[in-house]
């Protein structure tokens, strides 16, 4: 894709975050995500990938640097809060994201809070569940879902709000190979800009336009893996 011609929806410059003074986790992180672009992020366990996504959503405070979301310079909760419906974060642990009694209620929660009328919300829920192949789970209690089902329902809850940017933290966790392939095809077809964190280098290669690796607190180009998926991004 011609990213240079598309507007920048997420811009980060010289971002720094430390859990403790002697442990820098993010050090001088700079990146830009353009409209329609899918950017992959790889890195070892504990390298700071999930932390970076949480900092970008204002859930953890950066010690230094700038964050700009959808044209807004975000410094504190007053700046981040109005944008969280337009920027959606898929948490690494789905149990941190699902809190309503049933699948239908959980997917409806975001659109209802956006102020959509009940009839329109029902249409959004039906359309979103159909897109992910989850219609059969509509009335299922959340505690009765498998780990992979929870993963997809959490994603459905984000997509129902029609965000402009998706931050996806290990979206394939708990999914079998068939479900992963379905998810990859879905992500390729979505119009939203995405920052996708995954340990699966082949999955990132298949679904993203470019890939970076987080190492020693800094971003660098990620090496291309041997292809595992049959399609190309």
Automatic annotation (TrEMBL):
<dbReference type="GO" id="GO:0016887">
    <property type="term" value="F:ATP hydrolysis activity"/>
</dbReference>
<keyword id="KW-0813">Transport</keyword>
<keyword id="KW-0067">ATP-binding</keyword>
<dbReference type="GO" id="GO:0043190">
    <property type="term" value="C:ATP-binding cassette (ABC) transporter complex"/>
</dbReference>
<dbReference type="InterPro" id="IPR015856">
    <property type="entry name" value="ABC_transpr_CbiO/EcfA_su"/>
</dbReference>
<dbReference type="InterPro" id="IPR003439">
    <property type="entry name" value="ABC_transporter-like_ATP-bd"/>
</dbReference>
<dbReference type="GO" id="GO:0005524">
    <property type="term" value="F:ATP binding"/>
</dbReference>
<dbReference type="InterPro" id="IPR017871">
    <property type="entry name" value="ABC_transporter-like_CS"/>
</dbReference>
<keyword id="KW-1003">Cell membrane</keyword>
<dbReference type="InterPro" id="IPR027417">
    <property type="entry name" value="P-loop_NTPase"/>
</dbReference>
<dbReference type="InterPro" id="IPR050095">
    <property type="entry name" value="ECF_ABC_transporter_ATP-bd"/>
</dbReference>
<feature type="domain" description="ABC transporter">
    <location>
        <begin position="10"/>
        <end position="230"/>
    </location>
</feature>
<keyword id="KW-0547">Nucleotide-binding</keyword>
<dbReference type="Pfam" id="PF00005">
    <property type="entry name" value="ABC_tran"/>
</dbReference>
<dbReference type="InterPro" id="IPR003593">
    <property type="entry name" value="AAA+_ATPase"/>
</dbReference>
<dbReference type="GO" id="GO:0042626">
    <property type="term" value="F:ATPase-coupled transmembrane transporter activity"/>
</dbReference>
<protein>
    <submittedName>
        <fullName>Cobalt/nickel transport system ATP-binding protein</fullName>
    </submittedName>
</protein>
<keyword id="KW-0472">Membrane</keyword>
<comment type="similarity">
    <text>Belongs to the ABC transporter superfamily.</text>
</comment>
């Amino acid at each position: 894709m011609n990213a240079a011609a598309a507007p920048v929806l997420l811009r980060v410059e010289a971002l720094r975050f430390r859990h403790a003074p002697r442990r820098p986790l993010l050090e001088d992180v700079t990146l830009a995500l353009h409209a329609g672009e899918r950017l992959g992020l790889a890195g070892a366990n504990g390298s700071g990938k999930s932390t970076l996504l949480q900092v970008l959503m204002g859930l953890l405070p950066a010690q230094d640097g700038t964050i700009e979301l959808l044209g807004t310079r975000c410094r504190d909760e007053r700046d981040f809060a109005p944008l969280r419906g337009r920027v959606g974060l898929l948490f690494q642990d789905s149990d941190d994201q699902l809190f309503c009694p049933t699948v239908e209620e959980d997917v409806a929660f975001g659109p209802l809070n956006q102020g959509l009328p009940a009839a329109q919300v029902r249409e959004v829920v039906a359309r979103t569940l159909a897109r992910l192949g989850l219609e059969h789970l509509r009335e299922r209690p959340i505690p009765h879902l498998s780990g992979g089902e929870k993963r997809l329902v959490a994603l459905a809850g984000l997509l129902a709000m029609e965000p402009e940017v998706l931050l996806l933290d290990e979206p394939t966790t708990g999914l079998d190979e068939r479900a992963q392939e379905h998810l990859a095809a879905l992500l390729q077809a979505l119009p939203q800009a995405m920052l996708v964190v995954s340990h699966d280098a082949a999955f990132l290669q298949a679904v993203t336009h470019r890939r970076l690796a987080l190492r020693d607190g800094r971003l660098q180009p990620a090496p291309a893996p041997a292809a595992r998926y049959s399609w190309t991004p």
